[in-house]
Amino acid sequence: MLNSSQQPLHDHTNQCQLDAIAQAMSIKTQFNMSRDCFNSMVTSWGRSLPNGHKLAKSWYEAKKILRALKMPYEQIHACPNGCVLFMKEYADDKYCAKCKASRYVERDLSDGTKKQSKVPANVLRYFPILPRIQRLY
């Protein structure tokens, strides 16, 4: 698996498949893209690459490749407005300490109240630096 991750994305580049997927996932996280948007983005990029390229064709495939390569990442819940990461002193909070936005997706009930689901409103995927550096060497 490690050897396949070091193969170039296509014949005319030195960029490896893992690097391209990590960059695409980083862009997805940075701009809070939906899965459909990510799929459209990699499909568009794939059309501009030569035939036989190794870029993932969807979010599911990219995630599957990262999992197969044992590239660990941490999921950290974040405020939908980008104020706070729900870790350390905010780990148990259900609302943002700065803007009071809900940590979880809220649904409206029939009586006009809102109830929090267990689905986070925003998730940050963090690729720890040490495993990335270890993979280089």
UniProtKB/TrEMBL annotation:
<protein>
    <submittedName>
        <fullName>Uncharacterized protein</fullName>
    </submittedName>
</protein>
